[in-house]
Amino acid sequence: MVKTTMYISEELKQDIHLLAQNRGTSEAQVMRDALEKEAATLRPDWDLLPSLDLPHMQPMAHEDECFLTGFGA
After folding, report:
1. What is the pLDDT of residues 28-54, one digit of tens each?
2. Neighbour count for residue 30 (Cβ, 10 Å)
3. Within 13 Å and on the Cβ side, how many CA atoms surround 62?
4. Does the reported pTM lie above 0.85?
């Protein structure tokens, strides 16, 4: 974990404090959770890929197996 500092308004600080009390957690955890939720919107949703019907991808998934014959044996 990396320590960082940020400036926030008094109102936001009070909101974070109340959220932490209601959740029974630290203010730092409330902020980490909020930042993680926001950052997750930037990441691709890899769980969606298997639901895509891409028949042309199936042969490619196993194409490299012919090059691995005897490897690691």
Report:
1. 999 999 999 999 888 877 666 666 665
2. 19
3. 4
4. no
